[in-house]
Amino acid sequence: MSKPKNAMKAKTPKTRKPNKLAADTAAEMIVKTVTASEEPKKASRDGLCVFAFRLTPEERTAIHKAAGPAKASKFARSLLVAAARNDAAAVKAIMKAVQSKA
Who contacts 85 (Cβ-Cβ below 8 Å, separation ≥6)? Predict the structure, then answer.
């Protein structure tokens, strides 16, 4: 006699495989990130990832006002990367450029 098709099977927990690509290229992506002192080149989208966070409308407006029209993402990225690398000179240069616009 065969087993019925709807017989209960023992379920095994599903586990995700680690993202080897993310682990292997994390250090490479940090090296490739554009700093404030370098002129950005047209990068291929293959090695890029998204980094997102939430802002209040007032914070968003302040960033757009400081960066100028259509430059908020570039401004935020260069400032965040400079701060993450403890590059005080680059942070001061960015802040000085923002003060000169105001």
Answer: 35
- The two three-digit tokens of residue 91, written as one number: 């942070």
Instruction: Flag whether the pTM goes above 0.85.
Output: no
For the CA atoms of 92, 56, 84, 87, the dihedral, rounded to the nearest 10 degrees, stands at 0
Q: Is the separation of the CB atoms in 80 and 94 below 8 Å?
A: no
**Tokens (6 digits) for 34:** 């554009």
DSSP 3-state of 48: coil
Q: For the segment 62-71, what is each residue's pLDDT rounded down to a tens digit?
A: 999 999 888 9
For every residue of 10-33, which 3-state class applies, written as one string?
A: CCCCCCCCCCHHHHHHHHHHHHHC
